[in-house]
UniProtKB/TrEMBL annotation:
It is an enzyme of class 7 (translocase). Residues 1044-1284 form the P-type ATPase C-terminal domain. One of its GO terms (biological process) is phospholipid translocation. InterPro entries: ATPase_P-typ_cyto_dom_N, ATPase_P-typ_P_site, ATPase_P-typ_TM_dom_sf, ATPase_P-typ_transduc_dom_A_sf, HAD-like_sf, HAD_sf, P-type_ATPase_IV, P-type_ATPase_N. Its EC number is 7.6.2.1. Gene3D superfamilies: Calcium-transporting ATPase, cytoplasmic domain N, Calcium-transporting ATPase, cytoplasmic transduction domain A, Calcium-transporting ATPase, transmembrane domain, HAD superfamily/HAD-like. It comes from Digitaria exilis. Residues 114-126 have a biased composition (Polar residues). This is Phospholipid-transporting ATPase.
Amino acid sequence: MTTDAPLLLSSSGSADSPSKQQAPARTSIASLGCLCTTDSFSSSLYEDCDTASVNLADEREAEPGHCREESDVSRVAERFQSADSHFFHRLSVECSQKERQQKVSWGGAMEMQHSPSSLETGMVSSSHEKPNRSQRVRHKSSQFEDPFSPEHEPRLIYINDPNRTNDRYEFTGNEIRTSKYTLITFLPKNLFIQFHRLAYVYFLVIAALNQLPPLAVFGRTASLFPLLFVLFVTAIKDGYEDWRRHRSDRNENNREALVLQHGDFRLKKWKSICAGEVVKIHANETMPCDMVLLGTSDPNGIAYIQTMNLDGESNLKTRYARQETTSMICDAVSYSGLIKCEQPNRNIYEFTATMELGSQRVPLGQSNIVLRGCQLKNTEWIIGVVVYAGQETKAMLNSTISPSKSSNLESYMNRETLWLSAFLLITCSVVATGMGVWLFKNSKNLDALPYYRRKYFTFGRENRKDFKFYGIALEIFFSFLSSVIIFQIMIPISLYITMELVRVGQSYFMIGDTRMYDSNSGSRFQCRSLNINEDLGQIRYIFSDKTGTLTQNKMEFQQASIYGKNYGSSLQVASDFSHEISTTESLRQSGKKPKINVDSALMALLNQPLIGEERIAAHDFFLTLAACNTVIPVSTESSHDMVNGVDEIGTIDYQGESPDEQALVTAAAAYGYTLVERTTGHIVIDVLGNRLRLDVLGLHEFDSVRKRMSVVVRFPDNNVKVLVKGADTSMLSILKVEIGDGLYDSLHAKIREATENHLSGYSSEGLRTLVIGSKNLTDAEFIEWQERYEEASTSMHERSAKLRQAAGLVECNLTLLGATGIEDKLQDGVPEAIESLRQAGIKVWVLTGDKQETAISIGLSCRLLTQSMRSIIINGSSEFECRRLLANAKAEFGIKSADSRRDSQRSEDLYNGDISKLRSSNGHMSENAVQNFELTGVIAGEKSEYCEKVTFDDTELALIIDGSSLVYILEKDLESELFDLATSCKVVICCRVAPLQKAGIVDLIKSRTSDMTLAIGDGANDVSMIQMADVGVGICGQEGRQAVMASDFAMGQFRFLKRLLLVHGHWNYQRIAYMILYNFYRNAVFVLMLFWYILYTAYSATLALTDWSSVFYSLIYTSVPTVVVGILDKDLSHNTLLYYPRLYEAGLRNEAYNLTLFWITMLDTLWQSLVLFYVPFFTYNISTMDIWSMGSLWTISVVIIVNIHLAMDIRRWVLITHLAVWGSIAATFLCMVLIDSIPIFPNYGTIYNMAASTTYWLSVCLIIVLGLLPRFLGKVIYQTFWPSDIQIAREAELLKKLSQQLGGSRPESDVS
């Protein structure tokens, strides 16, 4: 057999090729460990198959007997470098150095499963969507070093010889440390971290200035109190958290494990274990370090581990010990050998190493290593040798945190803070300038004025002592600094603390919302980030994965195409011709035995003798389903037939990492092809009651380049066959071509045509498709493949690329057996949720790896697409074609650029609707929605000259684009075209996209607009998208917890997103927005009141308020009501918000917080400050009241007015709200009484005299009325003549409650 040269690397195989009869001895080595259950199938296989950005179906055969040549797409895309969310892969050795150094772009960035692998020349880097277990997204320009590059030598581990292992390399010990501080470094390091906040630095400077004698405005202790309080509380929190880390580290390091010492396994503390030692682990114990398996209690060397502590997945993984090391287990003295492995790295799903046992060289892979933190399950014991310990283990290298995100409102708050800073400088400059003018005018009289005389004229020690007068220039400078100290709370330090407390309280109620609890999975809502709660109320774009996010990711085998005939279509309607067979499957969320409907016609075919091409094709079809996978059958219960003396089939628990594979294996068992045993060297399948043993000679797992999986097996009759399954785009291009037999060629052409028609039908029904094929290998083909496979398996460099090239030797000229259709049902409530989100003004985009037809069908089912929409389909295979399609689509529908649409969009966003627009939808999709949608669809570029000239201004558009087009479009010169087109559409569906392409689509919107984005997904392939978006939501589904661990929020079902955004998002945004404005107002009114007073004290920075009153104002007197209202206040009930989704648009229009509101608030603040100062000023202008009495009046007045100001805006009064608002006023009065009761204070006894005066209380009442009257009148006028949607809905809600109360019925309770 010959192949195209570009697919092959040079071979150094032995000249003596073994014969077919000698093969078993050789393949016993090559086949060991080939059944590794890596992450290749940890997720949905069929979506993975459809993920690639390049359609390999475009490849053409050069001639019969040859594999397909590279496609035009591949040649054009060669320049792209593949990248996953952890690191970027190097191109293959055939690529030039220049090509290797090219940076990755969003368009060509495709995630690869096998990290350090290379790509064959001519193959575009493509994505493996679900299997990638990336924990964190790195920047696009970062690269991960190839551990086997020439500059990095492999690590040498001498088995059972730790002294020799560590003597040369000095590997780290197994002691771990996750704490940040020690007793010595805690104080300086913690303060250094805290002062990374610029606000803390600002207040530190203020406190330091106040310690200088010329600038001691406040008491030196009082000025330090706010900053010290914040620093102390934060330090206590950080110290407690680090103490818990120390305690955890101590407990972890002092755990014990059995280590081989002096020929016997003895207990040894984890922290003392080092590389090279042999360790024994028993069932349910945790791995102390990363170990290569040497043996297990299972005769076949199988071990089951649980990786929940590592990647969050609860399903069991299988690991294997090499059969070459089993002799070590029998004789403990003979533990010896050398392991050459890669240097420590973060990739937990890749391990490249070889083991040298004497003259024998054994390959090691990811299936032969168990990682620290994993637990041993369903296995009595295992023995392994330590290769990575302590901080070098993959678990510790992956112990990083999610990137920090800041909220949109916080950025606006920083903008307003700059305005307040400018105002602060202006007021301080006014005071300093006034001071200079006053000093200049009174320069001749300064010697006669207190504080400016050159000498003291008094009795005692101070007589004739010099005053500290520094001259006019320095006095002006000191006056400026003193004003900064006095007006410091204009930039509120308390706002940072308040926001943190409010966010914690909001998160508490979101977590406790029972309406977002998923009873099926037992998962409740999670808040994993406390910085962006308010962003949930301003989401404009939602980017959603499909499989496991919109769908259940619980696969059910529905239809099959075998030998050109369709089976299973009648299963949708129950009939007497179908029956059920019960098997068991390891379902992650349910232990129930699924019922598989079986097609009676197909069962009749399988019960016939194995004669004829159709019967043989059906036989090979189900053999492939049962054999070509990584599912492990485990007997869960004993079921023995006492009469017949045989074991019953049906008590098998299939352990698999992919719901797709479990569905296929379960379906094969339902049709009589039951996988009953799998070892490293063979599998046993029960075929209609007869046991068939197949020797596994090699297994090529799924990867994103090939998009298929194959297994080479030997049958009992010594025939060797390769069984293959994969995506249609990769399988149809490697099928057998014409052989010259007209009848044969005609028959198989018809079979292929029928199968392709069935695939299209399956996709249109929303089924996930897979193509099945096989091929009998000749002796020459097998020997050539075996040599190349063994060479690749033991290679220490570019192993993955060489394995792919070895697979190319047998994965060609396949015989088409058929195709499968698996249903992944929609989750409950998805259509209703999407409909409500769209009514709320949110655009929902679906980014999936599935076929276009499947994505469109799901889009119709979930009401994302409607019959009235016009579809734009972009399927380009070159940059020129994509450019033409985009231009034609924009011209066809009259789409303008984003800049020209901005004005009209702004006017639309500012529109305030009436209550007639606040309605819910109960629309229903008709049965022929797919056909109607297809009829209205328009393929871009194919303009019909007969189509009517219609206006598309009011037409809703839907854009459908595939990943291969995105390869070319996501370049800088085409991004703007895609952006203009996509943002003009109501719906965008991206098919066959890679994980980094998902992140690229999110970045396209995020970088070009100020709109908030949300990404939601359930698998590792969604991590990059989740972390790229402003808000990331993870689904606790079937795909593990990678998405959850990388997300900001997590939930069990997609439908909860509706409540999260429309209810909690709306509440959080309204609360935080009001709280920020209120804090600005609260502090500004206090500062301005002091400013007016200073103008009447010769600009001398003299205060009428006590030091403690100034400090307590923002920390105690007014802080509690702000926190309580920020957590508990509600403008509308959850029922109203869900019933009228368009109320959510208030957040999109920035109604609760914008620059206009800020300046209106500042004007109101200016008026209230004038009232606060001048009412007492004119009232007591001719009295003998001292400044402390005046300060007492101002203190109680400003606290009362800001609290009543808050009370005017509270929409939901509960007991705790009353206590907070009115209790703060009472607490202020009580604190003033206590402060005025201290004899050493200059204001001693002031409150007692003032409280007895009627004028005092009348002044307070007058201040409140005059200060709040303009605000009250403004609210009445605005809400009467220009009511907002929220105000109208609130009035309707109050009227409804009133009618219910008058009618005697109780209104429905509203729970946070």
